[in-house]
Amino acid sequence: MASKKPKDEPPKEEPVNIVAEEPAITDTEADDKAKVVDILLCILCDKQIRVPKCLPCLHSFCEPCLTKYVEKIIKDSPGKIEIHCPECKMMVFQTLGKLNAKSYAENLPIGTVCSTLLCEPAIEQKVCHFNDGCTREAVKWCGYCANALCFDHMDLHRQLTTMKIYHPTTDLQDATKLRFPYQKCVHHPKEDMAYFCPRDWTTTCNICGKIQHRTCYFLNKGVLQISEVAPEIKGNHTTKELDPKLDFLETESQELSDDRKRNLQRLDEQLQAGKDNISIFRKVMDEYLDEIEQNLNGELESKYEKVKSDLENEKMIIDTRLRTVKYYKLMLEAIHSKSTSLQSVTELAKLREQTESINCDIQQRKRTLKRTNLSVQPVHDLEKALPKMGSVHIKEFGRNLGLGHWSLRRSKSTLYN
């Protein structure tokens, strides 16, 4: 199925730091808690990921958790079914027909980066992870389940797995060198994604390579077997661009998030200032004060809640992008330090595509970002304006954050530039 592995294995490096803490901003509240991004945490069960399955957005979750998550979506969506990533909310699948949640989760690609990271502590502990009660010495590693297995549970594991799903296994001490099977082409389910197009920087199957990438044969070397290009991928200039790119996107996302937070804090101050103005209006309109104050406060609170909700939604989306950028940085670090050359090709291609997508989204938000102010303004002639003595105004104005720019170059020559 795949070519032989390169003879020269990459040197063993120190374990990667799989948890990154977001940098604090200067105006944080005293009770704010540091947020973390953990590449090995399944946010659906809030536990260390097991049987990692990877969505198109590159976020990984436990296969059983994804099954339950999709089952709930199917139950709540009698018509069109749309599946969004639980972390970044990106739509990863939609259909008008029937969908089997278990089959959907099983057919997702293995989270190979998570599986590789999980095997390192398992090699050190040498304890079977098949269930919580087993304390026997582990001798095997299943890359699909991301579990260390003893001899007894290895046999049980074989009995419980289905024939249609391949569980790559190896001796526990060789777990970091495990070769995962190629993913299958979505257009040709029987074909392995065993080829790589240096010009488009994407993986492909043999058939798609001859059809969709036929022009690459004239402009470049054409599609190549992954086994041929894998040793060159990590050191390629396109791969090297991902590090500063993700650093840049992290800074951009953090800046947008901080701006939304400060705007929310100023909104609270403006709310109080508006209420103070309303109290001043009351002295002028004492006769109508009770009814007018109630109506105007209602309008103020309503518009405050609307603006607050809009700002919080914007901040939530930006924070999601920020966490995803941190997640991608950790994934890139894990690929550089722990993935085999063959494994890294597909992951790097997908990581680059998702990075460019987030870049477009962040730059678009910076161009359209507006500052929102809330104020209460009285009418000029109170006597004629009765029974309404004032109105609440929302004003938005653009704030130039300094548009950053970064674009990943697409190689138009060869992979080996």
TrEMBL record:
It comes from Mytilus edulis. This is RING-type domain-containing protein. Gene3D superfamilies: Classic Zinc Finger, Zinc/RING finger domain, C3HC4 (zinc finger). Residues 42-89 form the RING-type domain. InterPro entries: TRIM45/56/19-like, Znf_C3HC4_RING-type, Znf_RING, Znf_RING/FYVE/PHD, Znf_RING_CS. The keyword Metal-binding applies. Keywords: Metal-binding, Zinc, Zinc-finger. GO terms for molecular function: ubiquitin protein ligase activity; zinc ion binding.
